[in-house]
Design goal:
With about 290 residues, this protein is of the alpha+beta class. It contains 7 helices and 9 strands, in the order H-H-H-E-E-H-H-E-E-E-E-H-H-E-E-E. Strands 1-2-3-4-5-6 form a 6-stranded mixed beta sheet, with helices on one face. A hairpin with a 3-residue loop joins strand 3 and strand 4. The termini are far apart. About 10% of the residues have low confidence.
Length: about 290
């Protein structure tokens, strides 16, 4: 018998006292209970984190709902968020602000993004046109403001007086409709020191065809006569309520042209838009008429 085998035989012959065996078993059970308690604490902690997370999410949801119902500015911003799951959406392609010689410039350029790629609709040409027009307007507006500044200073104006003019050039956009049928938005360029160069262009895209929508597309029959009749009726109603419009002799409404500005609202109705001073005093701002909304 080898040495190793003899050691094993002596080990097997050792009698473990019953008290020691019981003590070992007690320590094993104690260790198991401690481990179980630790696991239970971990589970309670994880559950507590989950509950807190759910409570936080619920609180955010409640705050979101309250904000929608009490804050008109917040609600307006939320209303312009892209629609998830739609065919297309309007996003900000480029945004910047600059200021030089007390001439402030704020530019926000939109772009159309197709969410669903297999529609066959291409928007690159439209997006390029929007980008070029926004950049062109901002460039020309800055040149006009600089010319105005030079003339102002050359005719005796001071830098302090010029600063008080608070000259601001703005290029931005507003989403009017964004669903699976239409994309409708307006791109505006404004100069706060003059109305002569303010511009607005409305884009109404039919997502079923990828083409721009016209009033003729949206209205049946003689659409020009239909729109003229509707606007005249609305003007009469609004005048009765105290609203002021120019007469025909003063340059007021005499009828629409084929290229009249319009957008598509949330009811999928066309809304005719007249610029400030076009058919009413400047205090009235832009004048709008929803067609088919009655």
């Amino acid at each position: 018998m080898g040495r190793l085998e003899k050691m094993k035989e002596r080990y097997d012959e050792i009698v473990i006292p019953e008290e020691l065996n019981i003590r070992v078993q007690q320590e094993i059970m104690k260790s198991q209970r401690q481990q179980a308690e630790k696991n239970s604490i971990r589970q309670r902690y994880r559950l507590k984190k989950v509950i807190h997370g759910m409570e936080a999410a619920a609180a955010v949801c409640i705050l979101f709902i309250v904000a929608l119902n009490t804050n008109s500015v917040f609600a307006k911003e939320v209303a312009q968020l892209p629609i998830i799951g739609g065919l297309a959406q309007i996003l900000t392609f480029r945004s910047y602000e600059t200021e030089k010689d007390d001439i402030a410039v704020s530019v926000e350029i939109p772009t159309i993004e197709m969410i669903t790629e297999d529609t066959g609709i291409t928007v690159e040409k439209i997006n390029q046109e929007i980008l070029e027009q926004c950049n062109q307007y901002a460039k020309e507006a800055v040149m006009r403001a600089e010319e105005y500044r030079t003339a102002f200073l050359e005719t005796g104006g001071t830098l302090e007086e010029w600063k008080k003019h608070n000259i601001k050039i703005t290029v931005n956009y507003e989403i009017k409709q964004q669903n699976n049928e239409y994309l409708s938005f307006v791109v505006r360029g404004t100069e706060n020191w003059t109305n002569a160069y303010n511009k607005s262009k409305y884009y109404n895209l039919d997502l079923s065809t990828g083409k721009f929508v016209t009033l003729k597309d949206m209205l049946d029959g003689d659409y020009i006569e239909l729109v003229n009749k509707n606007i005249r009726e609305q003007i009469a109603e609004r005048q009765s309520a105290g609203e002021i419009f120019f007469t025909a002799e003063e340059g007021g409404f005499t009828g629409i042209s084929e290229d009249v500005k319009f957008y598509i609202n949330k009811n999928n109705h066309p809304v005719i838009v007249f610029e400030k001073y076009e058919i009413a005093p400047g205090a009235s701002g832009e004048i709008e008429f929803e067609i088919g909304g009655n």
